[in-house]
Amino acid sequence: MSLIYMPVWAVIPVKRLSEAKSSLSAVLVPEQRCRLVLSMLADVLGAVHQAPSIASAIVVSPDERVLSFARLHGAEGVAEPDLGLNEALKLAIRHTISKGVDSVLILPADLPLLKSADVENLIVMASAPKDVVIAPSKAKGTNALFLRPPVLINLRFGGESFPLHVKEASRAGVRPRVYRSPTVALDIDEPEDLLKIETLGLGTRTYRFMRSLAKKASARIE
After folding, report:
1. Residue 132 — φ and ψ, nearest 5°?
2. Taking burial as the number of CB atoms within 10 A of a residue's CB, which of 8, 15, 89, 179 is the most buried?
3. What is the b/e burial string over 163-190, where b = at least 16 CB atoms within 10 angstroms of the residue's CB?
4. Is 2 inside a domain boundary?
């Protein structure tokens, strides 16, 4: 007998815009970094909304500008009082459970190359009543984490979290499945990552934003 699962909810955490992407401060001024974050969030939400297996998306953030932007782009906004990443995610997951959700897909907001096919592939890999699917980042972080049920493991986001999430899954008695994709592995943390948007991000809102900056810089030079 095949098991039938409820549609998945996506959970996307976003920092305060004033604190976001400080690692890019050498190449982008604060307002440009804010606009970059929102552009990437729009790309992630676009991929999520186009994935048939996703029922809804939640953006959790302490920043009202982010929450308003998320609502305008079809997501539910959940405010959190600067709890820190993992505690904010727990808050959002409790919200999904209150809605009767049995599976969540946690995604960072800085995956501008994310495709709806990635989202579907991640979800399809999960076939058991208790399941974990993890997609690593280029730096051994976690760029996607599917959980069924949503509180199956302890969240260990931050730094090299991929091996930590693998251990947490094993501790919960689950052999985690690993999804590897270049479009999921690329998160935008360093100036050199922006160059990859120029070459790989055609068609994304983030690409258009970066091109607009380049055009303005070129106009100033002329």
Report:
1. -135, 130
2. 8
3. ebbbebbeeeebebbebebebbbbbbbe
4. no
pLDDT one-digit tens code per residue, 92-147: 999 999 999 999 999 999 999 999 999 999 999 999 999 999 999 999 999 999 99
Q: Which residues contact 55 (CB under 8 A, 6 or more apart)?
A: 6, 7, 8, 9, 101
CA 23 to chain centre: 18
Instruction: Report if residue 3 sits inside a domain.
Output: no
Domain with residue 134: its CATH number is 3.90.550.10
**Of the candidates 161, 154, 112, which has an alpha carbon nearest to the alpha carbon of residue 137?**
161
Task: Name residues whose C-beta falls within 8 Å of residue 203's C-beta, 6 or more positions apart in sequence.
Answer: none
> The pTM is what?
0.94
How many of the other CB atoms lie within 10 Å of CB of 27? 13
The token pair at 218 is: 């070129």
Helix (H) or strand (E) holding 167: helix 162-171
Does residue 167 form part of some domain? Answer: yes
101, burial (CB in 10 Å: exposed 0-12, middle 13-18, buried 19+): buried
Number of domains in the chain: 1
